[in-house]
Design brief:
This protein has 541 residues and is α+β, with helices and mostly antiparallel strands. The protein has 16 helices and 19 strands. The two termini are 37 Å apart.
């Protein structure tokens, strides 16, 4: 997650890319120049676009266009820079005074005030609102009163948030969290207008934010039209007239539309087209490092997959996967075999270290031995679940299963389990409906080692879909967050990662590059360090 004298971890990241889903149809034609509309592939979000209830890529793309928070991550370096924050002050890394800039409004004309943030954070944290990102507010004093682990809330608001005046509010945390200011560019911390609370249903049908775009219309399963907000007060104004996000249930179809001139931007080039993309697009193909890792999540909520000694089973499955062969043959230089649970974009100073060791190296004989010693695959067959609306997932899941089956000497030790759409898949993941390992992709929210570990593996964390839990891991993460010395904090996070490794709490697969392609109708196309297109910078020729 993400100051004054605080560690500048965010500056350690590099630039990058995206992973999206994609169904289709023609393109928006018409005006070029500053009023031209960009058409881009997309997938329906899992949930309505509440900032604190969106923790997946598709919804995140829209929030990134219609909201601006206290911080914004530099689209080239990932560094957390002040956006609405005029200053964030602290003397103890526990108590923070936040002053916001004057002159900011929401697109409905309402002024953005300190209360806009405090109300939004209290809403996001409260148990009754059932927000998936509530956990991001857990370090604020009073969180346990509004979001208890058991029972009913004992308060409506967090005691650690106080409005001082229109432009100032204070935050009191329950422990030192030196990089707290760096986290405040994440969408969960966005401000909300009174319209969100006064007519919630109307807001959900047409969200109102304070970013460079407004939502013009949304037809689920078809498209969302976003249009430039000419009254936007920020410096990062839209350089186009708007963006139409078109829903695709097959990214091969999206790619075909792109090459046929019916779509301007595809931000997930399908694996089956990687051999053709250079010839098809030339310098309009983007392939850059990203803060993304793909893993297999283990369903620890299933008793059959949460038995003593099964760390050997999980390690054996990991060693049965020939990552190098799969990334070479299927992904053609857009993936790199994983050697830890973070991303190389962090660099050594930021916490990247090849901690997985032999557990991430292919060794068929050792894999077979470990799987047997770990009790064997529950039920004899593991079904790897994945969303089927992107072509690349089926290919690599099949390849992973072939590798596992060959290593274990069985034709049915592993099979793929496709789920129709991304939204349906995420619903099954978050409601613990999947009975075996499942595809998990983590795109960093901010470039800190903490963000690769805590949201995914801390007990009951917001994106801990497999329900992994280890008290020692949690304790080390808490200690790392409280550490004000960056190097010491990184070392503590790495110790936590070693606990995760010894448990094989998830199986690392590969680091993902961002791959995108665009038409000759648009220019200035780039992917940011979080693998999302920088939509506001795109120009229409």
């Amino acid at each position: 997650m993400r100051g004054a004298t605080h560690a500048k971890w965010a500056a350690l990241a590099a630039a990058v890319a995206l992973a999206a889903t994609a169904c289709g149809g023609g393109t928006d034609t018409g005006a070029g120049g500053a009023d031209g509309i960009v058409s881009s592939s997309w997938g329906d979000p899992q949930n309505p676009l509440e900032p604190a209830n969106t923790n997946e890529v598709q919804g995140g793309k829209v929030l990134n266009m219609i909201f601006r928070g206290l911080k914004k991550y530099d689209p080239k370096t990932g560094e957390a820079r002040d956006m609405l924050a005029e200053r964030i002050e602290t003397t103890d890394s526990t108590n923070f005074t936040i002053t916001i800039k004057d002159g900011w409004t929401f697109s409905n004309g309402e002024k953005v005030t300190a209360k806009s943030f405090v109300d939004a954070w209290n809403y996001g944290a409260h148990l009754r609102n059932n927000q998936k990102n509530a956990y991001f507010f857990a370090y604020i004093e009073g969180y346990e009163q509004v979001h208890p682990e058991q029972g009913q809330p004992k308060a409506q608001t967090m005691s650690g948030l106080k409005v001082v005046n229109d432009r100032t509010f204070t935050v009191k945390l329950t422990q030192k969290f030196s990089t707290f200011p760096e986290t405040l560019g994440y969408a969960a911390f966005a401000p909300l207008p009174r319209a969100f609370f006064d007519d919630h249903a109307a807001w959900l049908s047409k969200p109102v934010g304070n970013g460079p775009y407004t939502v013009d219309s949304y037809a689920k399963g078809s498209q969302m039209a976003l249009r430039r907000w000419d009254g936007y007060p920020g410096e990062d104004k839209a350089r186009n007239g708007g963006v139409t996000l078109k829903v695709y249930t097959d990214n091969n179809t999206a790619y075909t539309d792109l090459t046929a001139g019916n779509l301007d931007l595809v931000d997930d080039v399908p694996a089956s087209q990687l051999k053709n993309v250079q010839a098809d697009l030339g310098d309009r193909y983007i392939n850059v490092p990203a803060g993304i890792i793909q893993t297999l999540s283990i369903p620890f909520y299933e008793p059959a997959w949460n038995r003593p000694g099964q760390e050997k089973l999980r390690k054996g499955i990991s060693m049965a996967i020939n990552r190098q062969q799969i990334t070479d043959t299927i992904f053609q230089k857009t993936r790199t075999p994983a050697k830890d649970w973070t991303s190389p974009v962090l660099g050594a100073e930021g916490g990247y270290k090849e901690l997985c060791g032999e557990a991430c190296e292919f060794n068929a004989a050792e894999a077979k031995r470990l799987v047997a010693e770990g009790g064997g695959i529950p039920g004899g067959t593991m079904r790897i679940s994945y969303n089927a609306d992107t072509g690349s997932h089926k290919e690599w899941v099949d390849a992973v299963c072939n590798s596992i089956n060959n290593a274990l000497g069985s034709n049915n030790a592993c099979v793929g389990n496709p789920v129709g759409t991304f939204a349906d898949y995420r619903h099954q993941v978050t409601t613990q409906k999947l009975k075996g390992p499942f595809r998990a992709g983590w795109q960093m929210d901010y470039p800190l080692i903490q963000n690769f570990l805590q949201p995914m593996y801390y007990t009951n964390a917001s994106s801990n879909d497999g329900k992994y839990s280890n008290p020692e891991f949690d304790k080390l993460v808490d200690q790392a967050n409280a550490e004000t010395d960056t190097a010491k904090a990184v070392a503590l996070f790495q110790r936590a990662e070693e606990v995760l490794r010894d448990d094989m709490g998830a199986i690392p697969l590969w680091y993902q590059n961002g791959s995108a392609g665009y038409s000759d109708r648009v220019s200035n196309v780039a992917l940011d360090p979080f693998s999302v297109p920088v939509y506001n910078e795109i120009t229409v020729n």
